[in-house]
Design goal:
heterodimer; A: mainly beta; Neuraminidase; 4 helices; 9% helix; globular; B: 147 residues; mainly alpha; Cytochrome Bc1 Complex, Chain D, domain 2; 55% helix; 0% strand
Amino acid sequence: MKNKIAKLLLPVAAIVGSILFAALKYDSSNVVADADNAGLKLPSGFGALVVAQTGASARHLAVTPQGDIYVKLARPKDGKGILTLHEESNGKATITGGFGNYGGTGMYIKKGYMYASSNSEVFRYKLDENNHVISPDKPEIIITGLKMGRQHETKSLVLDNNDNVYVNIGAWFNSCQEHDRGLHSMGIPGCPILDSMGGIWQFKANKLNQSYAEGVHYAIGLRNVVGLDWNQQNNQLFVMQHGRDQLHDIFPEMFTTKQNAELPAECMYALRKGDNAGWPFMYYDQIQHKKILAPEYGGDGKKEADAKFIDPAAAYPGHMAPNGLLFYTGSMFPEKYKNGAFIAFHGSWNRAPEPQAGYFVVFQPFKNGKPFGEWEVFADNFSGSADKTARGRADHRPCGLAQGKDGSLYVTDDSKGTIYRIIYNKK
Amino acid sequence: MKKALVILFLIAPFCPLLIQAQSKPKPKTKVAGTSASIARGSKVYTQYCLSCHQADGGGVQNMNPPLTKTTYVLGDKTRLIKVVLNGFTQAVDIDGQSYSNNMAPHDFLKDQEIADVLTYVRNNFTNKASAVKLAEVKAVRAGNKKK
């Protein structure tokens, strides 16, 4: 009997052993920056390497301590909507496979599960002790039936520490007009679509087949959020809103092309349950430091909005499209970065005919869980040159952010599919 | 004649066809008409189209379709005129790519402005296609109203 058990256990032990060996094998101490820092401009002491060229629309990503990278693709490549990569000790990774025949953006790992989103659903995959997906073809559908339009269709997600998942449901309008983006077209009274989009919904991470009825309408009045993260210091959800477009195109008498390029701010919001950030009835003007009534709802660029709408935690220049937000909790980077926020700005289009802007990763210092001090450009030149930035013809466009076990910062590019890793060299 | 040459010189950057026009005197007036339309269309483009389709007509990846050598721009003029009049909000791929942003109806533009801007677009951004005539826009708008 004992022998039988031993016989049965032997292969198990061998498998566990080999898995443990594999787990221990990944060692990032040999990771070195590329000679050209992957083409990026970085602060002194930092370096960067190209981890992989996926050639796919790489959106959000998750990196495991075992050196595996899971990348969510906007559109499946060869039938795979999630790519898996494995890193060698020098930091270079190869694509080892993929699964999930659906496009989307959300990708997050928490407490033994991977969460990934299509543009209308959220799936979860159980992970083994090495953070490998156990059944790639049998995810649990935890959230389903979320509305999606042609625009702002992606469903980003993040989890808190109490088994809740927060999902962005973007509004399918620019500013809730009778004719979307139409000249002089006024806002639909009350903007009734806010009941099911233009906000953040909270769901249970461990419950199947939830939809609007089972979810909590956590925050309203957010046009579209792509970058979001859970702040562990004050246990709070932070989101980056994509501000409205086309103030000049829609109301050329009120806004110059220059004003249109700068306004409104791209806002960071620190959210509490029940908060209303005011879209589409207002926008935040970072030059006047005021919440301004939207022209579609009777505004003129000066009239202030209802004070009930929350103030942003921080504001950035218009149209730069914040697609990734990450609170840095690692210890590789110098002390000032600890608990601060990295923001991946995908880059603008709605600044034309003025020069475009963005296509970089910004660092926002934090103190006691609140933005503190001026933001700075951390990683620049994803576009390839100042001229390419100005013309909006960037080579690469930063999108997702993730932190490695060693504290390095990963950045995806959803244009060409490059995966970057930024490290700190100085000892 | 001198005046015409000066005009031709001024609008030459907008229209490579002019070189041909100069060597063949007969179609000059016709091409000059097209050139004037292109010049007017350029202004309409800057005011109403550039912010989405960009100065180089290349559009915005995944959001606003390019106007460079696409079947929508170079193909059926009626369909193209209807895009301007009615906007574009359908979930349809354009030459295998999808674009998410809605285009609002631009039916507030005058028939001549639509003819000019489409002629400009069809003869700029490396495109080369026939002009869109005022009468064509009028006819499409009339048919459009009946719906």
